[in-house]
Fold these 3 entries.
Entry 1:
Amino acid sequence: MSVYNCYDCNTVLCKDCSRKHKDENKNQRHLMQLISNSFILNFKFRATLFSYHKSISDIKYLPNGELIVLIARENAVKTFSVTGIQRHNIRLEDNPLKMTVVDKNTVAVLLINRSLAIVDIQQNHVQYIRDIAIPYSSDTLIYIKNEFYISYFIMRDGIVVIDMSGSVKRHIPLSFTPYDMCYDVDSQRIYCLDREHGKLICIDRDGNGIFTFTDPGMTDLIDLTIDNEGNVLGLCRNDDSSGNVIKVDSNGEKSKEVITNIKTLYVYPRICYDYFTNSVVIASDIEVYIYKKNERVNI
């Protein structure tokens, strides 16, 4: 009975044949995936020319469907179509770390020099917010109603909230460091990744706890995103340099593994969700992998 699909060969295989196929192609590292996964690898492309020094540091989708890609050590913001065609290449003054979507044409990029770059994609324009009070940021931020929520750890853990000019509006103390955050507009909840303890923690905009979720399958939880139904998708990395995606329902009551055997290599991979095509997008090293919803399984 067919159990696995090889993306590189476009072949379905039984369990025994998949082992043999993997051994035969171990040097090529063919991408093998369970056909029962909720999302199946449909397409992949490289976001930049191969280099040992370059990697994708973050990915996000704009409301118009363009994929925004940050290239570390290339100091660039690039955009791509759903078919992997590059449309924009905007240079930054320093190395980009993480970003958040501001509106349909704009992203804010946190740079390694602790400035914020406000990037207007259509106008090909960058405005910098400098000297913001985040010297000990954990390199993650979200945008909520004209304010940036940026995690920090200096004497204590928490979130600093700044306005569009860079002025500090307030601090939200927490008992953990949010190593990644995503915001659900409909529920007005902030989902935080407590990487140190392998937890998904949900809070409101004032930092009040709503729920804490743990799962044995969430080993080395790295990055978060939200799907079009308000569920949280957590990207995890395994000891063998592969990865998987765990879906946690919006109330933190149950979880399900929806993607297996992701090629994550040794850098920190990133995940985002394309609401137009119901696709999960994962970046690893300099490659982008697009996983389409599997219509043959009950998600």
Note: The chain has a mean pLDDT of 87.
Entry 2:
Amino acid sequence: MSDSSRVTDDAERPLRILIGADTFAPDVNGAARFAERLAAGLAERGHDVHVMAPAASRKHGSWKEVHEGQEITAHRVYSWRWYPHDWLRFALPWRIKQNAARILDKVKPDVVHFQSHIVVGRGLSVEAEKRGIRIIGTNHFMPENMLEFSLIPKAWQDWSVGLAWKAARRTFGRAEAVTTPTRRAADFLERYTGLRGVHAISCGIDAHKYFPNWEPRTENRIIFVGRVTGEKQIDVLLRAVTLLPAELDARVEIVGGGDQKRNLEHLAAELGIADRVTFTGYVTDEELREAYHRASVLAMPSIAELQSIVTMESMASALPVVAANAMALPHLVHDGENGYLFEPGSAEDLAAKLRKVLEASPEDYHALKEGSVRLIAAHDIQRTISTFENLYRGKPVTDPVTDVAPVAVPE
């Protein structure tokens, strides 16, 4: 075999990849879902994929797990439950470097890809740097999102957020490449950490798992999908529903679980709309696809989305979207093209934009649905996985276009 052939073979050989995550399946949130899909997609391409994450129960250790139909090796580290949060478990910070060192020496990965800087990412980055292992870091986290669960007094919260961003700077500073899901999120990370050259790489979705429903609407059903927590601002949606004309007979479906479910049920009753609001809790993937198909519009009032996989899934299902004009949502929702943006926190503006969708003519409504399908085409996860493979191998990458898709909607 020639030297050039050896170089080519080595460059394309399957990699041993260790993904580090502070939240991973069975957790239900955007970061956990992305890490799971990435791990499964890489395994499907023949790579040897390992995941280090907090144990989902008291049972901890290393074993095989199947995710998205693919087998990976999970290294579940001893964890504690964080009781201010409804499900969160965390790896013990004072043992994380010891655990990271043990797992790194056992796995001997070609590359470490951590998904946040908080606990697991910090331990892995410190120990991987000592061993000369290539490190890639991805940020899905905003310190502000955890304040309501932190028990930190209000007077100390700004100081705490500053410390969190300094910690992020130290951990991400150890990585050869840093990524986050959108250009706006990348700019945000650079501004608050001083990092430069952060890549904007879409989390992506399994586009083939979602498909449009072109059947005419038979009701006005507004859907929200996600964690039922404070930063999602679901209360704004409920208040907006009370401002819609009675003749629309708008119904609301809240898909997901969280610590605010009971409070929101009480709010719906106080607002007199309890009979029009359904809280479904957590659902299966098939049930979620059915929920998208029976909906008329997705409402996303959250002000803290670094990308919003839910919004992408709904777009792939040909749903128009009404979303807060905040963080990454304007990357996905283009006014008048696939939905509308509203002033964050404004129930009045949200109601006005929902009316634009629900009162649209059949032709205009169909055009919004087509807009969602067209705009989502750039976010296929296969494109995302290919980009990360190149980063793992140290190849130069061009950030995928995540604002618009270079395809036309068929007539």
Note: The CA atoms of residues 123 and 378 lie 34 Å apart.
Entry 3:
Amino acid sequence: MITMQNVRKTYGNFTFEISMELPEGQILGLIGKNGAGKSTAIKLILGLCRADEGSIRVFGHESKELPETLRQEIGVSLAESGFSGELTVNDVKHILKKMYYSFDENYFIKQSENLKLPMNKKIKEFSTGMKAKLRVLTAMTHHAKLLIMDEPTAGLDVEARNEILDMLRAYIAEDESRSILITSHISTDLESLCDELYLIHDGKLILHEGTDAILEQYGILKVSEEQYRTLDQSSILKVQKENYGYACFTNDKKFYQENYPQIAVENGGIDELILMMTGGYR
């Protein structure tokens, strides 16, 4: 679906560099702190900005030369865009009908009802959660093969976030050849959604791993100064100094549980992954 090879983009003092791939039928998460470069990746894929170097291919075509028929196969939800102002959901329906050849009006109306989005209420009067749901729905309503979701759950409460994640799961379940690229700094939202994760920090890709592997194999070792000196560090990805000694992030917690039964080994979820790999763990 998407291939980025040695892509580089510089804004002033910030340089973004990445190689990544989204295969057909997968959900890929781009994770990292705010400002890491996740939105830059989205803009490059969509052709909203041009790379200084490297290749970006979507559906096998250079993104800047993507035929209109294939552009119609992409559904997009951007964090800082969407319908607003005096428009109503009914107005949005008419706009989408003109934008997409395969706009499914019945699906749009049914989902609007399910999401409790009133057809004739002005969008400017919607809550943050209602606006987020509408952004995601507009991306799905023409049954695109590829969804690109930029921070779709940002700023929402748990109930609204879960509702949007359920929408995405249902969308993939309808057609297993569909793919989703989703960015988020709320990493726990992605634990049960994404097949693979790319962690970006300061514009650089610092880790690519399967979600199941992170949840099952990664962990945090909490060791004293003395324990650290004798520790096999072959499977340690990151070390951070702490008051008690060291916090060590590993991609093989089972090895340390079996060979160092005297040290504390905690599970390393996605939040821990981000914090440890970007130096923010405490």
Note: The chain has two domains: 2-212, 218-277.
